[in-house]
Amino acid sequence: MGKKSRSKPGPSKSTSLVLADPAPSEKKTKNKVPAQEKDAEEEFLEKLIFGDAEGFEAGLNELDGGYSDDSDREEGGGIALAGDGDGDVDAGEDLQALRDDELFFVDEGPSGMDVILTKGPEEGGEEEEEEDDLPAWQDSDDEMLTISLANRGLLRKLRDTESEDLISGKEYSARLRRQFERIYPVPEWAAAAGGSDRRKRGGSSSDEEMGGVEEEGGDEEAVRSAPSLEEILRSTTTNWTRKVPGRLRPEKLTIVRLADGNRIGGSLSMISTLHFHPHHPLLLSSGPDSTLRLHHINGTTNPPATSLHLRNTPISTAHFHPSGTSIIAAGRRKYFHIWNLSTGTIQKVTRIYGHAEVQKSMETFRISPDGKFMALVASRGFVNVLNATTYQWVCAAKIEGRVADISWWGDSHGLTIGNKAGGVWEFDVLSEKVVARWQDEGGHATTVVKNGGNRWIAIGSQSGIVNIYDRTRSFGTTTSNTSNNVLAGGTKEKPKPVRVLEQLVTAVGVIEFSPDCQVLAIASKGKKDALRMVHLPSCTVYQNWPTSGTPLGRVTAISWAGKETGIVAIGNEAGKVRLFEIQA
C-alpha cells in the first residue's frame, strides 16, 4: 500500500509539464499569424461586455440630465438595444443586456400633478406671507374659555355694543390687540419700514430712530430732526377742562386718582423731573435713561405724543419754556439741549464764554416765569444768568459756600439762592445786586428752596424739616394766629417762619406750590410714600390724604398742571407717574 501510494504522484508531475509547454509556442504563433477582422456579432458582444466611447458618453449625459426631450433619451438610452436592427433579441435578453443604471430613470416630463404642487414666486407669494403671519403656537383652550365683558369695569371698553357680554377666549385676545392698537398706533416710521431690518437694530441705530442727539466735539451745535409742535398738537386737541371749585377747605382734601400719566410708553428708570406744558395738556417726563417723553393727558388713557433720546445725557432737569415753544434739558454734563417744538430741531449749547471755569456742569437750572432769563447753578458759589432767548450770559450772582438750590421770584425780577449751611441770598437780576441776606431758622442743611408767587417761600432741609415763610409777615411784622398755629415776627436778617413742618423725617427732595398757591406739596425720596399736602394760607397739613393705600412709592418729582385744573403729577423712583385731581 505504501509503494503504490508513492508511485501515484509520478504521472501527475509529467502531466503538469506537458500542460505548461504550449504557452511559449502560442505566443510565437500569435506573433506570426495576422489578425482577422471582427464580424458584427463579435463587435456586438464586445460592446455589450466592455462598452465603448459612445456608450460611455451617453451614460454621462444621462447622469447629468443632459437630455432635452424624450427622443434624445431613446437615442442615448437605447444603445444596448439597437445592436440588432432585425429585432432578433427578445424582451428578456433586452433587460439582461441593460446596465444597472439603465433599468430606471427619473421622469422629468411635465404632468398635471406637478402643476398643482409646484408654484412660482408670483403664485405662491401671498400664501407664503400668510403662513409667516400665522402664530407659532395656538392654545386650543382659548376656544373653550368664556369671558364676561360686563362684569369688570376694565373690560367694558372692549364691547362693540352696550348689551354685549360673553365672548370666547380667541375673540377676547383679538379685541385686546385691537384696543392696544387704538391707544398706541403704529408710528409712521415703523409703518414705512414694513418689517425691515431697522426694527431689529440696537445701539446707535435705535437712538437715531428716536431722534437722538449725539454728543459732538467743539462748539458746533448738534441738530436733529424731531416731531414739531404741530404734529404733537394734532393728537392733543383737548385743552384743560377741569377746574377747582373756588377756595379749598383746610380741613379735608377731596382728591381722586386718574390713570397714570405714563401708563403707555413709560420709563423703567427713575423720574427725575416732571413739567406740564403751559397751554396744552402735555406732560414732560425725563430721567437717567436720557429720554424726554411727552404724554397727552386726557385723564383716561394718556397716550404718548412723542419722545426724544439724548445720547449719553442722563437728564437731571427738563422744563418747558414758559412760551411753550421749546424744551430745555440738561444733565451732569458741560452742555444742555434746546428742543425747538416749532421747527423740530435740537440745539446743543456747549459753553458759556468767559465762565466755563465755574460752569462745569449744567444739571441744575431754572427758567424765570416770564421766560426772559435762565439761571444756572455753578461751582464756587456762583449762579450764572443767561438770556433765555439767545442764551448769552447776562450776569452772575456770588454767595458764600456751595449753592444748594435756587428759585425765581414771582415777578421774575430776581432769585432766591440758598447755600448748604442755611444761608439765603436775594439777588436782583435787573440791578445785578444782592438786595437781602438772611438765615433760615434752625440753621439746617438746606436742600430745596422754592418761591410761591411773590408771597410764600418754603425751605426744606436735610433733616426733613420744612419752614414756610410769608413775606408779608415773617420779615419784621408781628402777628399771631393761634387757631392755625401760625407763627409771626422776626427781622429782615432773621425772619420767623409762619409754620414749621416736621411730618417728613428724611431729607426733603421736592417742594412745589400749586399755580394758585392754595396747596403746597412736600416730599422726600428717602422713605416710601413720604409726601404731604399743605393748605395755604392756613399752613394746615391735610390729614386725610395721602392714605396708607395711596401708591406713591419713593417720590422724586412733582408738577402741577394749569392754574384752574387741580391736577398734580407725582413721579417716583420706579419710573411711574401718578396723576391725581383735586376736586374740593
From TrEMBL:
The keyword Repeat applies. Residues 123-140, 206-220 have a biased composition (Acidic residues). It holds the Pfam family WD40. GO terms for biological process: rRNA processing. Keywords: Nucleus, Repeat, rRNA processing, WD repeat. Residues 1-40, 59-92, 110-140, 191-237 are annotated as: Disordered. GO terms for cellular component: Pwp2p-containing subcomplex of 90S preribosome; small-subunit processome. It is found in: Nucleus, Nucleolus. The keyword Chloroplast does not apply. SUPFAM superfamilies: WD40 repeat-like (SSF50978). Its main location: nucleus. Belongs to the WD repeat UTP18 family. This is WD40-repeat-containing domain protein. It comes from Tuber borchii.
